[in-house]
Amino acid sequence: MPNATVPCQYRTGRTLGSGTYAIVKEAIHIKTGKYYACKVINKKLMEGREHMVRNEIAVLKRISSGNRNVVTLHDYFETAHNLYLCFDLCTGGELFDRICAKGNYYEADAAALVRTIFTAVAYIHAGGIVHRDLKPENLLFRTPAEDADIMIADFGLSRVMEGGVGGDKLSLLTEICGTPGYMAPEIFKKTGHGKPVDVWAMGVITYFLLAGYTPFDRESQQAEMEAIIAGDYKFEPHEYWANVTPTAREFIQACLTIDPDKRPTAAECVEHKWLASATPHFVPDP
Ligand code: ADP
Ligand code: MG
Protein backbone atom coordinates (compact mmCIF):
# COMPACT_ATOMS: atom_id res chain seq x y z
CA MET A 1 0.00 0.00 0.00
CA PRO A 2 1.42 3.43 -0.85
CA ASN A 3 2.27 5.65 2.07
CA ALA A 4 -0.37 8.17 2.94
CA THR A 5 0.54 11.81 2.72
CA VAL A 6 -0.14 13.53 5.99
CA PRO A 7 -1.43 17.01 5.20
CA CYS A 8 1.15 18.31 2.72
CA GLN A 9 4.17 18.34 4.93
CA TYR A 10 4.71 14.80 6.12
CA ARG A 11 4.83 11.37 4.58
CA THR A 12 4.00 8.52 6.90
CA GLY A 13 5.74 5.18 6.88
CA ARG A 14 5.78 2.10 9.07
CA THR A 15 3.60 1.70 12.11
CA LEU A 16 5.51 2.09 15.37
CA GLY A 17 2.81 1.06 17.76
CA SER A 18 -0.81 1.39 18.64
CA GLY A 19 -2.85 1.99 21.71
CA THR A 20 -6.48 2.44 22.60
CA TYR A 21 -7.34 5.38 20.36
CA ALA A 22 -4.36 5.89 18.16
CA ILE A 23 -1.93 4.46 15.68
CA VAL A 24 1.59 5.84 15.87
CA LYS A 25 3.47 5.96 12.58
CA GLU A 26 6.92 6.98 11.55
CA ALA A 27 6.67 10.22 9.58
CA ILE A 28 9.17 12.16 7.52
CA HIS A 29 8.93 15.92 7.30
CA ILE A 30 9.30 16.35 3.55
CA LYS A 31 10.97 19.76 3.62
CA THR A 32 13.64 18.95 6.19
CA GLY A 33 13.92 15.17 5.79
CA LYS A 34 13.61 14.85 9.56
CA TYR A 35 11.90 11.85 11.10
CA TYR A 36 9.12 12.08 13.68
CA ALA A 37 6.61 9.82 15.37
CA CYS A 38 3.14 10.82 14.26
CA LYS A 39 0.22 9.85 16.47
CA VAL A 40 -2.83 9.49 14.22
CA ILE A 41 -6.06 9.64 16.13
CA ASN A 42 -9.28 8.69 14.40
CA LYS A 43 -11.92 11.28 15.29
CA LYS A 44 -14.77 8.78 14.93
CA LEU A 45 -13.22 6.44 17.49
CA MET A 46 -12.82 9.39 19.79
CA GLU A 47 -16.35 10.65 19.44
CA GLY A 48 -17.38 12.23 22.70
CA ARG A 49 -13.84 11.91 23.99
CA GLU A 50 -12.14 14.51 21.84
CA HIS A 51 -11.54 16.45 25.02
CA MET A 52 -9.00 13.78 25.96
CA VAL A 53 -6.91 14.59 22.91
CA ARG A 54 -7.27 18.32 23.28
CA ASN A 55 -6.23 17.80 26.85
CA GLU A 56 -3.20 15.83 25.73
CA ILE A 57 -2.23 18.67 23.42
CA ALA A 58 -2.70 21.29 26.11
CA VAL A 59 -0.60 19.25 28.51
CA LEU A 60 2.13 18.62 26.01
CA LYS A 61 2.29 22.26 24.99
CA ARG A 62 2.76 23.20 28.60
CA ILE A 63 5.51 20.80 29.46
CA SER A 64 7.07 19.72 26.18
CA SER A 65 10.75 20.31 25.68
CA GLY A 66 11.28 21.43 29.26
CA ASN A 67 12.78 18.10 30.28
CA ARG A 68 15.01 15.81 28.25
CA ASN A 69 13.09 12.74 29.41
CA VAL A 70 9.63 13.90 28.30
CA VAL A 71 8.72 13.53 24.59
CA THR A 72 8.46 16.84 22.75
CA LEU A 73 5.37 17.64 20.70
CA HIS A 74 6.66 19.34 17.55
CA ASP A 75 3.56 19.77 15.45
CA TYR A 76 -0.19 19.33 15.56
CA PHE A 77 -2.90 19.48 12.89
CA GLU A 78 -6.18 17.85 11.96
CA THR A 79 -8.19 16.78 8.92
CA ALA A 80 -11.86 15.91 8.62
CA HIS A 81 -11.17 12.38 9.86
CA ASN A 82 -7.99 12.44 11.89
CA LEU A 83 -5.95 14.33 14.43
CA TYR A 84 -2.17 14.28 13.98
CA LEU A 85 0.42 14.84 16.68
CA CYS A 86 4.10 14.81 15.72
CA PHE A 87 6.59 13.89 18.42
CA ASP A 88 10.30 13.19 18.74
CA LEU A 89 10.88 9.81 17.18
CA CYS A 90 12.04 7.30 19.76
CA THR A 91 13.71 4.45 17.93
CA GLY A 92 14.75 2.41 20.94
CA GLY A 93 11.40 0.77 21.62
CA GLU A 94 9.38 0.43 24.81
CA LEU A 95 10.84 -0.25 28.24
CA PHE A 96 8.35 -3.12 28.34
CA ASP A 97 10.15 -4.92 25.51
CA ARG A 98 13.56 -4.35 27.06
CA ILE A 99 12.43 -5.84 30.36
CA CYS A 100 10.96 -8.83 28.51
CA ALA A 101 14.15 -9.29 26.47
CA LYS A 102 16.43 -9.05 29.51
CA GLY A 103 14.21 -10.99 31.92
CA ASN A 104 15.01 -8.39 34.55
CA TYR A 105 17.41 -5.51 35.19
CA TYR A 106 20.52 -5.51 37.34
CA GLU A 107 19.81 -3.45 40.40
CA ALA A 108 22.30 -0.67 39.63
CA ASP A 109 20.90 -0.27 36.10
CA ALA A 110 17.34 -0.31 37.42
CA ALA A 111 18.18 2.35 40.02
CA ALA A 112 19.76 4.62 37.38
CA LEU A 113 16.72 4.23 35.13
CA VAL A 114 14.19 4.72 37.92
CA ARG A 115 16.05 7.81 39.12
CA THR A 116 15.91 9.33 35.63
CA ILE A 117 12.19 8.58 35.22
CA PHE A 118 11.38 9.84 38.71
CA THR A 119 13.24 13.09 38.05
CA ALA A 120 11.04 13.61 34.97
CA VAL A 121 7.92 12.69 36.98
CA ALA A 122 8.89 15.24 39.64
CA TYR A 123 9.27 17.78 36.84
CA ILE A 124 5.79 17.17 35.41
CA HIS A 125 4.31 17.18 38.92
CA ALA A 126 5.98 20.52 39.62
CA GLY A 127 4.17 21.76 36.50
CA GLY A 128 0.85 20.72 38.02
CA ILE A 129 0.39 17.64 35.85
CA VAL A 130 -0.42 14.05 36.74
CA HIS A 131 0.42 11.49 34.04
CA ARG A 132 -1.97 8.76 35.28
CA ASP A 133 -0.82 6.08 32.84
CA LEU A 134 2.81 5.42 33.69
CA LYS A 135 3.74 1.89 32.64
CA PRO A 136 6.58 0.28 30.68
CA GLU A 137 4.62 0.55 27.41
CA ASN A 138 4.57 4.35 27.75
CA LEU A 139 8.27 4.70 28.55
CA LEU A 140 10.31 4.77 25.35
CA PHE A 141 14.02 4.78 24.57
CA ARG A 142 15.23 7.60 22.34
CA THR A 143 17.66 5.31 20.47
CA PRO A 144 18.45 1.58 20.38
CA ALA A 145 21.67 2.18 22.39
CA GLU A 146 21.94 0.36 25.70
CA ASP A 147 22.41 3.69 27.53
CA ALA A 148 19.80 5.65 25.52
CA ASP A 149 17.68 8.34 27.19
CA ILE A 150 14.35 7.11 28.46
CA MET A 151 11.33 9.24 27.56
CA ILE A 152 7.92 9.58 29.17
CA ALA A 153 5.28 9.37 26.43
CA ASP A 154 1.50 9.11 26.12
CA PHE A 155 -0.10 11.93 28.03
CA GLY A 156 -3.55 10.89 26.75
CA LEU A 157 -4.89 10.37 30.23
CA SER A 158 -3.06 13.08 32.07
CA ARG A 159 -4.78 16.12 33.42
CA VAL A 160 -3.66 19.61 34.00
CA MET A 161 -4.56 19.79 37.63
CA GLU A 162 -6.94 22.57 38.41
CA GLY A 163 -5.25 25.09 40.58
CA GLY A 164 -2.03 24.64 38.63
CA VAL A 165 1.23 24.24 40.49
CA GLY A 166 0.72 22.58 43.84
CA GLY A 167 -2.98 22.15 43.20
CA ASP A 168 -3.29 18.46 43.84
CA LYS A 169 -5.39 17.87 46.91
CA LEU A 170 -7.97 20.51 46.09
CA SER A 171 -9.02 19.12 42.77
CA LEU A 172 -9.37 15.43 43.20
CA LEU A 173 -10.01 13.36 40.16
CA THR A 174 -12.51 10.61 40.55
CA GLU A 175 -13.05 8.78 37.29
CA ILE A 176 -11.52 5.35 36.89
CA CYS A 177 -8.73 5.37 34.37
CA GLY A 178 -5.38 3.84 33.59
CA THR A 179 -4.16 0.27 33.26
CA PRO A 180 -5.32 -2.05 36.08
CA GLY A 181 -1.94 -3.53 37.09
CA TYR A 182 -0.40 -0.09 37.58
CA MET A 183 -3.40 1.64 39.15
CA ALA A 184 -3.23 2.92 42.72
CA PRO A 185 -5.74 1.76 45.37
CA GLU A 186 -7.34 5.21 45.66
CA ILE A 187 -8.40 5.02 42.00
CA PHE A 188 -10.51 1.90 42.71
CA LYS A 189 -11.78 3.33 45.97
CA LYS A 190 -12.93 6.44 44.09
CA THR A 191 -11.83 8.61 46.97
CA GLY A 192 -10.19 11.02 44.56
CA HIS A 193 -6.64 10.87 43.30
CA GLY A 194 -3.80 13.06 42.18
CA LYS A 195 -0.03 13.03 41.83
CA PRO A 196 0.52 10.10 44.24
CA VAL A 197 -0.93 7.70 41.60
CA ASP A 198 2.20 8.25 39.50
CA VAL A 199 4.42 7.36 42.46
CA TRP A 200 2.43 4.14 42.97
CA ALA A 201 2.79 3.26 39.28
CA MET A 202 6.54 3.86 39.56
CA GLY A 203 6.61 1.39 42.47
CA VAL A 204 4.96 -1.24 40.26
CA ILE A 205 7.38 -0.43 37.41
CA THR A 206 10.40 -0.73 39.75
CA TYR A 207 9.14 -4.11 40.99
CA PHE A 208 8.70 -5.22 37.37
CA LEU A 209 12.22 -4.02 36.44
CA LEU A 210 13.83 -6.00 39.25
CA ALA A 211 11.74 -9.17 39.07
CA GLY A 212 10.55 -9.38 35.46
CA TYR A 213 6.89 -9.73 36.52
CA THR A 214 4.38 -7.37 38.14
CA PRO A 215 3.34 -7.49 41.82
CA PHE A 216 -0.46 -7.62 41.56
CA ASP A 217 -0.88 -10.05 38.69
CA ARG A 218 -3.90 -12.25 39.54
CA GLU A 219 -6.20 -14.68 37.75
CA SER A 220 -8.97 -12.10 37.32
CA GLN A 221 -9.28 -8.31 37.24
CA GLN A 222 -11.46 -8.46 40.34
CA ALA A 223 -8.78 -10.38 42.27
CA GLU A 224 -6.14 -7.98 40.97
CA MET A 225 -8.16 -4.98 42.15
CA GLU A 226 -8.67 -6.53 45.59
CA ALA A 227 -4.94 -7.24 45.88
CA ILE A 228 -4.14 -3.63 44.98
CA ILE A 229 -6.62 -2.19 47.49
CA ALA A 230 -5.17 -4.44 50.20
CA GLY A 231 -1.58 -3.74 49.11
CA ASP A 232 -1.21 -7.51 48.89
CA TYR A 233 2.08 -8.34 47.17
CA LYS A 234 5.23 -10.20 48.15
CA PHE A 235 8.88 -10.22 47.17
CA GLU A 236 8.50 -13.81 46.00
CA PRO A 237 9.35 -16.32 44.61
CA HIS A 238 12.58 -16.15 46.60
CA GLU A 239 14.91 -16.96 43.69
CA TYR A 240 13.84 -13.78 41.89
CA TRP A 241 14.52 -11.58 44.90
CA ALA A 242 17.55 -13.24 46.50
CA ASN A 243 19.97 -10.73 44.97
CA VAL A 244 17.87 -7.63 45.49
CA THR A 245 19.04 -5.39 48.35
CA PRO A 246 16.81 -4.45 51.32
CA THR A 247 17.17 -0.80 50.24
CA ALA A 248 15.54 -1.55 46.87
CA ARG A 249 12.69 -3.43 48.56
CA GLU A 250 12.19 -0.61 51.02
CA PHE A 251 12.01 1.83 48.08
CA ILE A 252 9.28 -0.25 46.40
CA GLN A 253 7.40 -0.53 49.72
CA ALA A 254 7.48 3.26 50.10
CA CYS A 255 6.08 3.79 46.57
CA LEU A 256 3.41 1.16 47.25
CA THR A 257 2.14 2.83 50.43
CA ILE A 258 -1.64 2.31 50.39
CA ASP A 259 -2.51 5.71 51.86
CA PRO A 260 -1.69 8.33 49.19
CA ASP A 261 -1.16 10.96 51.90
CA LYS A 262 1.60 8.86 53.44
CA ARG A 263 3.20 7.93 50.11
CA PRO A 264 6.39 9.88 49.37
CA THR A 265 6.22 12.49 46.62
CA ALA A 266 8.18 12.05 43.39
CA ALA A 267 10.70 14.65 44.56
CA GLU A 268 11.16 12.73 47.84
CA CYS A 269 11.62 9.48 45.91
CA VAL A 270 14.49 10.99 43.93
CA GLU A 271 16.15 11.68 47.30
CA HIS A 272 15.56 8.15 48.61
CA LYS A 273 18.81 6.41 49.47
CA TRP A 274 18.27 3.73 46.83
CA LEU A 275 18.26 6.42 44.15
CA ALA A 276 20.38 9.14 45.73
CA SER A 277 23.58 7.23 44.94
CA ALA A 278 22.43 6.02 41.50
CA THR A 279 24.12 7.75 38.61
CA PRO A 280 21.64 8.71 35.90
CA HIS A 281 23.09 7.82 32.53
CA PHE A 282 23.15 10.71 30.11
CA VAL A 283 23.99 10.64 26.48
CA PRO A 284 25.68 13.96 25.66
CA ASP A 285 23.63 16.31 23.49
CA PRO A 286 24.68 16.14 19.84
P1 ADP B 1 -2.06 5.29 23.25
O1 ADP B 1 -2.61 6.50 23.93
O2 ADP B 1 -2.99 4.81 22.21
O3 ADP B 1 -1.58 4.24 24.21
P2 ADP B 1 0.74 5.99 22.81
O4 ADP B 1 1.10 7.42 22.76
O5 ADP B 1 1.10 5.23 24.04
O6 ADP B 1 -0.80 5.80 22.42
O7 ADP B 1 1.44 5.26 21.59
C1 ADP B 1 1.21 3.88 21.33
C2 ADP B 1 2.54 3.18 21.04
O8 ADP B 1 3.18 3.78 19.89
C3 ADP B 1 3.57 3.29 22.15
O9 ADP B 1 3.39 2.31 23.15
C4 ADP B 1 4.88 3.13 21.37
O10 ADP B 1 5.15 1.78 21.10
C5 ADP B 1 4.58 3.84 20.07
N1 ADP B 1 5.02 5.25 20.16
C6 ADP B 1 4.35 6.28 20.73
N2 ADP B 1 5.04 7.44 20.68
C7 ADP B 1 6.20 7.16 20.06
C8 ADP B 1 7.39 7.92 19.72
N3 ADP B 1 7.48 9.22 20.01
N4 ADP B 1 8.40 7.27 19.09
C9 ADP B 1 8.30 5.95 18.80
N5 ADP B 1 7.24 5.17 19.10
C10 ADP B 1 6.20 5.75 19.72
MG1 MG C 1 0.11 4.20 25.49
Automatic annotation (TrEMBL):
Domain Protein kinase: 10-275
UniProt keyword terms in alphabetical order: ATP-binding, Kinase, Nucleotide-binding, Serine/threonine-protein kinase, Transferase
Stretches that traverse the bilayer: none
Any one Gene Ontology molecular-function term assigned to this protein's record: ATP binding
Domain of life of the source: Eukaryota
Residues where ATP binds: 39
Family as reported in the entry's similarity comment: Belongs to the protein kinase superfamily.
Stated name of the protein: Pkinase-domain-containing protein
